[in-house]
Fold this protein.
Amino acid sequence: MGLTKQSTGHNALKEMFQVKSDSPYDFIVALAGNPNTGKSTVFNQLTGLNQHTGNWPGKTVTNAQGNFTYKDKKFILVDLPGTYSLFAGSAEEETARDFICFGKPSAVVVVADATCLERNLNLVLQIMEITDKVILCVNLMDEAKRKKINIDLSLLSRKLGVPVVGTSARSGQGLEKLRETIYKTAHGEIQPAPVKLEYSREIEKAIEELTYTIEAAAGISINSRWTALRLLDGDPAIQKSINDFLGFSLIENKEIVQKLNKARLMLKENNMNTDSVKDQLVYTIVRKAEELAEETVTFHNKDYNQMDRKIDNILTSKAFGFPIMLGLLGVIFWLTIQGANYPSEVLAGVFAFIERKLTDFFLSTGAPDWIYGILVQGMYKTLAWVVSVMLPPMTIFFPLFTLLEDLGYLPRVAFNLDNFFKRACAHGKQALTMCMGFGCNAAGVIACRIIDSPRERLIAIITNNFVPCNGRFPILITLSAIFIAGSGLFSSFFAVLVVLGVIVFGVLMTLFLSKLLSKTILKGMPSSFTLELPPYRKPQAGRIIIRSILDRTLFVLGRAVMVAAPAGLVIWIMANISIEGMSLLSRCASLLQPFGNAIGMDGYILMAFILGLPANEIVIPILIMSYMSTGVMMELDSLDALKNLLVNNGWTWLTAVNVMIFTLLHFPCGTTLLTIKKETQSKKWSLVSFLVPTVSGILVCFALTQIVRLAGLV
């Protein structure tokens, strides 16, 4: 994170979160913990509406900060990304580790899950090696009680040497005591004395060799024992962060280098290299966590998770796992498709009313037609179209998707798909990022942050576009309904089946291209990871609404709006400026006609995709505008009218299939490309993300067209 001595404590907080210099706060508190422990609920309950989100400087990782007041003291609470360990791999884990290590918080609250305390204690013990100011918040005590799990919090506090508070954050139980404990710890009334982890005799001797030398070189600005451990285990990422914090490199200090070489030689004489040292450190932490759990946790019902396992035996089975997954996906799509129609019409009506008022205004002022055309018929109309078509589906899809996430089902999806991604030399977590892409590919790209390996993260980003987002679903559904599913009682059902078939094809292309990328420009072996199957939990309505609407829907919509208005300007210019009686749009379409014909489409279709770069939602309106030569985007009254227009312009079932395939396999929209650029910080990988799906779509459409034509099927 590039922290320095001057950018820690209060100064770090101002730099990272841009807190105004006159903000009245007294203490900084870090909130850490494993994923799925209810950490965000604790954060929300403590801070209420006094929250702010942004990005860490130089990072794509989202941060959240909030504040609360207790006994006239104001506390800034920093919600760190969930992590299982401080041996960081992903950007989120690195961010959490660096803030705990170098941010100098007045207290660190570690949130643990009462139903699986043993695993959560691993992180607690690692944090206790860095700072004394640790508070353990054992959350989900209500669930532990329901599962007949008893935790002796007083004994655990004595064993750890730090204050321990039991909470049930959903109901608010224990939070007042947590506030009081935070206050007393930050204020110095409670002086935690964390238990010291005892490693093997050889490692302890090596630590002793280094500790005093490090303390002499770095002073008390950093925990010398913890720093010695990091030098011994040889993690380059942690060492870089330490050097950035100190402002100089420890391994350039001659005395430290001498001591380090001596320590490593001593370890080598005992058959211990860097890897075995790290293994020993991890083993000691895990064993200590096991001992603490054995002494403080009592299971009155040994089969407390039996119901979860029975459900998992169905949801993750080879026989039922995939059918259930596809069925749930189909239901979500159907609800999204059906539910978005009415609010889309309402929004379209509101925007049409505003358009009429704008038209009246421009007419009353006598503004030139071209100004009216650019501002209203071009920029405003495109913007209105994107919002009215994108907002309702996202408002439905993201809450439904977040509901599955809150229930604990999404890790089961990743479990089902993990083996396929492993065979494709990709990361198993890519299954989760791919699922997020169904709502919006830009959100899917952002979700790739959870993948530790930079190589595998890039593969996930590049191939994320192979799952259709809500902007492409209208095209797929419309064409499948009028050219393939036909009419009748079950037409919508058949349309959903066709769309599911397209999705399965997209998943297969994701796996194929992931394997191809991993064998060519992104060579490497797939990394391993531990996939946690969290317990099934009752969804939290408030959390679902906040995360899906505010964090996802409005975030994605905001980026879409950024590119929609400029695109409207370009579209209007292309459709209304003519050269020798032919619009620029028609001239470009004529140039593209031979190429379009070779891949089973035409020049106007290709121009619709090109001009639809800002948002896939406007591809069909641009196509209608092109075929009708109106110069303004418009939509038709019915599917029958649209079918007649397309057929009259040479469309066949093959054209429809090629358009559906190219809709699935073509360049990401402008919002997604902008997101890729921000996530990768690279024009190169943004270009690769543009070319890989586009070239794939061209090749597939070309092959299909030539085969069908040679077979005489059209």
Q: What stands out?
A: The chain is about 65% helix and 10% strand.
